[in-house]
Amino acid sequence: MTDIVIQGIYGRMGHALIEKIAARQDCRVVAGVDREAGKVGDIPVYAGFEGLPKVDAIIDFSSPAGAVAAVQYGAVHGVPCVICSTGLSAEDETVLEDASAKTPIFRSANMSLGVNVLIELARQATRVLSGEFDIEIVEKHHHNKLDAPSGTALMIADAINAEAGNSYEYVYDRSQVRQKRGAKELGISSVRGGGIVGEHDVLFCGPEEVLTLSHSAGSRGVFADGAVQAALYVAGREPGYYTMTDLLRGKLPCV
């Protein structure tokens, strides 16, 4: 049995995680960490990491500051961490990398297995079509989302750019210039409205055909499920920096 702590347990993702884990037989939530102490059902919630019971993994859906606090605690106590928070700065990412020398750190801006399969397919399409096809990314989210473009859109763009030898320039807004599209532009567009959980389209636009790779999340459960699988994956592993590529290895021949 894998004992898990959820940081951000009061939030919507915290509740989605509780629901997913309750339906499993191989793991359980033993505590939560959030802005103030309390309880969620029978689960004790701490206002910080001090005093936590011994656990096998921490799943973080909180904030950049919370993510940093989680990995610092994990590094000291040897607890694997699954970091799902977005908006981390370069300095925050450095803290995560430093912590991975002492404990397993699993990092992904999007925990959906489907989105990460889409990223692998985008890499393959770039390998074949880059240079002949223009590439655009369109992401859509609910009206309460704070960051734009989404961390997932940037994950997709970075994967494409790495596959193309980092030859693309990201373009977020075409309204300020009046000129035709450059061959090495990678456009990223954001839509915010209603209760859209998350949609991402990657368009490879050729002279006479368009290939679209698309993913749509029906509920937050897909992110919770991926986070739980990540926690089970890193629990008991050697220190290191792990990503969805590691989790998908063996499942996809392209990884």
Secondary-structure blueprint:
Elements: E1 2-7, H1 12-22, E2 27-33, E3 38-40, E4 43-46, E5 57-60, H2 64-77, E6 81-83, H3 90-99, E7 104-107, H4 113-129, E8 134-141, H5 151-163, E9 169-171, E10 185-192, E11 199-205, E12 210-216, H6 221-234, E13 240-242, H7 244-248
Parallel strand pairs: 1-2, 1-5, 2-4, 5-6, 6-7, 7-13, 8-10, 9-10
Antiparallel strand pairs: 3-4, 8-11, 11-12
Helix pairs in contact: 1-6, 2-3, 4-5
What is the CA-atom radius of gyration, in angstroms?
Answer: 19 Å
Number of strands: 13
**Mind summarizing the main beta sheet?**
8 strands, mixed
Shape annotation: elongated
The residue ranges in which pLDDT falls below 50 over 5 or more consecutive positions are none
Number of domains: 2
Helix and strand run: EHEEEEHEHEHEHEEEEHEH
The name CATH uses for the topology of the largest domain is Rossmann fold
Main structural class: alpha/beta
Report the span from N to C terminus: 29 Å
Strand order of the largest sheet: 3-4-2-1-5-6-7-13
Strand percentage lies at 25-35%
| CATH architectural arrangement of the largest domain | 3-Layer(aba) Sandwich
Mean pLDDT figure: 93
CATH top level assignment of the largest domain: Alpha Beta
Please, what is the CATH homologous superfamily of the largest domain? NAD(P)-binding Rossmann-like Domain
